[in-house]
């Protein structure tokens, strides 16, 4: 299952290194979906007349190595650079002794610590909801890195409680093809891709970077795609080493912001609003969330695994804390199904809007988390949502100045999911 099992982050000295302190904030928050976790805003406590009665955490796995295919592309680009007979820029001299040490797909120790820290934070925030008979109910999608993120989270939660409360990972949902899974993308054969949009942007910002590097490393013959892969290596190597990779010094802040926009486009057009069937990926989770919020059985005909949701053992209702562990593309689909981060104008593949709020680094960094809280305010029940600690306005259900919607209005606002996507899910086949 990999190296970083429960408790990998429990040593206090390790825990204190979780911030990649030597990497400037502006830089590490411009790595799109490969940014280390950071809170986008300061968490807001509920109004004085309200008390939180339920918390639903949806979290992306922590920092990982590149996927196997991405890693192979990165190695190709690095080897091209290394093939240069000489370097005309001193920032490339490190390549003479550089060794590529990254694995593939798995969680890195930094990613384990991100999840462990989240467990500590969630216990601190919601400890009043916990008793020995009311432990968090924890599920994970079936990738090793997701499973290990879940178990590191439970370890952090337990440690924060001085091991008075030790939640366990109760359900692992298979990611095998053909399996229904609300915590992973899939099950929609006719969904499109983001390739056209990301390629259009790459062909605008990539050639100048490749040309510059080819001048600095004569004979390397790098392509714009190679430039993208080398930019990504800055992020991957930094989270692997827990310090700034020398590849980061090869690029300017402006070039990293161009890289960031590639990630923004990818998420928007892969499973976000720019993909006609993207929001359909989130329907199943939203319907499970509605079931938990209302204490009623799940009603869903999309990606829900009915064997699991049909049993009180694998899908209990009336728990106070739920924690689900997932992937970035699935979380984006869930945001879109809910109606979060709607854009007045779709991101333009040839020109980024500097004022956009669709930023992959703020939506789905490594360890990203969405928390849906249910609150009792007097006799009425309310809902509010945080994404990476930033309270969402919830305009779609009449959110007030505190981001509060009545539970009834929130449920009614989710007609897209309650109708299995207004026909969208049927278009998947």
From TrEMBL:
Q: Name one GO molecular function term.
A: inositol hexakisphosphate 3-phosphatase activity
Cysteine pairs bridged by disulfides in the record: 50-377, 188-428, 234-248, 397-405
A GO cellular component term found in this entry reads: extracellular region
Give UniProt keywords alphabetically: Disulfide bond, Glycoprotein, Hydrolase, Secreted
Which PANTHER family does the record associate with it? 3-PHYTASE B, MULTIPLE INOSITOL POLYPHOSPHATE PHOSPHATASE-RELATED
Q: Which reaction does it catalyse?
A: 1D-myo-inositol 1,2,6-trisphosphate + H2O = 1D-myo-inositol 1,2-bisphosphate + phosphate; 1D-myo-inositol 1,2,5,6-tetrakisphosphate + H2O = 1D-myo-inositol 1,2,6-trisphosphate + phosphate; 1D-myo-inositol hexakisphosphate + H2O = 1D-myo-inositol 1,2,4,5,6-pentakisphosphate + phosphate; 1D-myo-inositol 1,2,4,5,6-pentakisphosphate + H2O = 1D-myo-inositol 1,2,5,6-tetrakisphosphate + phosphate
What is the name listed in the Swiss-Prot or TrEMBL entry for this protein? Phytase A
At the highest ranks, the source species' classification is: Eukaryota, Fungi, Dikarya, Basidiomycota, Agaricomycotina
Listed under subunit, the entry gives: Monomer.
Keyword Ribonucleoprotein listed: no
Q: Where in the cell is it found?
A: Secreted
The residues responsible for catalysis, as annotated, are 61 (nucleophile), 328 (proton donor)
């Amino acid at each position: 299952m990999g190296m970083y099992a429960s408790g990998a982050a429990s040593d206090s000295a390790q825990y204190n290194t979780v911030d990649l302190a030597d990497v400037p904030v502006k830089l590490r928050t411009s790595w799109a979906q490969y940014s280390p976790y950071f809170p986008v805003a300061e968490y807001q406590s509920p109004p004085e007349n309200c008390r939180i009665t339920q918390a639903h955490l949806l979290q992306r796995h922590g920092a990982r190595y590149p996927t196997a295919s991405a890693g192979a592309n990165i190695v190709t680009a690095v080897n091209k650079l290394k093939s240069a007979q000489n370097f005309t820029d001193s920032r490339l001299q490190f390549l003479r002794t550089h060794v590529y040490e990254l694995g593939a797909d798995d969680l890195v120790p930094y990613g384990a610590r991100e999840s462990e820290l989240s467990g500590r934070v969630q216990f601190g925030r919601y400890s009043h909801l916990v008793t020995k008979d009311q432990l968090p109910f924890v599920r994970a999608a079936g990738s090793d890195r997701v499973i290990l993120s879940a178990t590191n989270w439970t370890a952090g939660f337990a440690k924060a409680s001085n091991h008075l409360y030790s939640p366990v990972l109760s359900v692992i949902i298979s990611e095998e093809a053909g399996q229904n899974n609300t915590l992973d993308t899939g099950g929609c054969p006719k969904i499109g891709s983001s390739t056209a949009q990301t390629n259009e942007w790459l062909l605008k910002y990539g050639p100048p970077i490749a040309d510059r590097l080819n001048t600095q490393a004569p004979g390397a013959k790098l392509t714009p795609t190679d430039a993208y892969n080398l930019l990504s290596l800055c992020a991957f190597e930094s989270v692997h080493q827990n310090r700034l990779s020398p590849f980061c010094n090869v690029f300017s802040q402006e070039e990293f912001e161009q890289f960031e926009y590639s990630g923004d486009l990818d998420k928007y057009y892969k499973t976000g609003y720019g993909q006609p069937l993207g929001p359909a990926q989130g329907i199943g989770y939203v319907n499970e969330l509605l079931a938990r919020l209302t204490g009623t059985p799940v009603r869903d005909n999309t990606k829900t695994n009915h064997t699991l949701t049909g049993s009180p053992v694998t899908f209990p209702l009336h728990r106070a804390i739920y924690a689900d562990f997932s992937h970035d593309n699935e979380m984006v689909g869930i945001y879109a199904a809910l109606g979060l981060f709607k854009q007045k104008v779709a991101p333009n593949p040839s020109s980024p809007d500097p004022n956009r709020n669709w930023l992959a680094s703020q939506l789905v960094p490594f360890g990203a988390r969405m928390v849906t809280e249910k609150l009792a305010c007097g006799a009425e029940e309310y809902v509010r949502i945080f994404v990476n600690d930033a309270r969402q306005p919830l305009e779609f259900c009449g959110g007030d100045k505190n981001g509060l919607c009545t539970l009834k209005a929130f449920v009614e606002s989710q007609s897209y999911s309650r109708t299995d996507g207004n026909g969208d899910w049927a278009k998947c086949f």
